[in-house]
């Protein structure tokens, strides 16, 4: 399969898993805040992402089981995406302002299905991408994932006043159904060789690898500060007086293009200039971007300022995420790719979930301006474990992400 074919296939898969997450992380917080839910409540709603944090528990099962004739990862991805379509169609019959319990169950189900699809997709990506293709491959991954988030976060916020809840869910279902077509037609997945089906020991074996503790600390800390800051971004926009459609235009235009470009630029720079060098530079840019939201919080709230800052933050986040995900892919062994990558991704989700859950308490206690500045400080502190891990790599004491 050509490199372009691999990238196109992975783009469709990461687009599919980005749509439910964008709906949950972008659409839902703005809608809840507009309906008068407290900042603390909006922050705690991020705990509905629990399946993304716990997916490591069933990752070895996804890695081990599957139909070789159909494709070990493909035999998971296709049914999971079909179930996602069915769940969205069921949610379209729910009235979210009345039946909150059904909404919570539905969102949890969507997150479970998308996170399990992510295990199989990450395993497929590590398997089919050569090391030289991973920088650009992760740029495409982040770009497609963010495109899905924007489509079902930003664009749906714009269309929600006209479409209503039922049509929003049905549009998501139709879009995910379309992204299922490329993987349904895919026939190039390599079959595992003798002894290459990992068992449950793959989970424990990962934690025995040299340097695993410092590496997991590095990836946990790297995105925590950003999540802590932007967890209150959409409630902040609501409290500035923006409507759901306004926020949709802001994130669905500036955020959309900036995150796509940032991810692709980040992936290209990683391939050309090295993983760690890019990780450290992108971390500094990310901290500055988060801090910049203190400007409108302090009173400078012109429309062009909001667009400029949103563009800057999404661009920097795309670059930083592409660099981090490339290094996480480097640390995954091909025969246990789904498990290894999922363990790392779960650590990132746990850290970002913690940051998002606490963000509401910080914004309520200190105000938005201080909250964003505090988040920027956490971004700077968060890169220190990566610096420490790089020192271990240079001394040859670890095999994880050992690519300078």
Automatic annotation (TrEMBL):
A GO cellular component annotation in the UniProt record: membrane
Keyword match Manganese: no
Segments passing through the bilayer: 42-62, 74-94, 142-159, 215-237, 249-271, 278-298, 304-329, 341-362, 368-387
Record-linked Pfam families: MFS_1 (PF07690)
Domain of life where this protein originates: Bacteria
Residues of the Major facilitator superfamily (MFS) profile domain: 6-394
Organism: Nannocystis pusilla
UniProt keyword annotation of Membrane present: yes
Main location: membrane
PROSITE patterns associated with the record: MFS
Location in or out of the cell: Membrane
Classification via PANTHER family: MAJOR FACILITATOR SUPERFAMILY DOMAIN-CONTAINING PROTEIN 3, SOLUTE CARRIER FAMILY 33 ACETYL-COA TRANSPORTER -RELATED
CDD domains: MFS_MFSD3
UniProt xrefs under Gene3D superfamilies: MFS general substrate transporter like domains
Membrane topology summary: Multi-pass membrane protein
InterPro entries: AmpG_permease/AT-1, MFS, MFS_dom, MFS_trans_sf
Entry protein name: MFS transporter
GO molecular function: transmembrane transporter activity
Keywords: Membrane, Transmembrane, Transmembrane helix, Transport
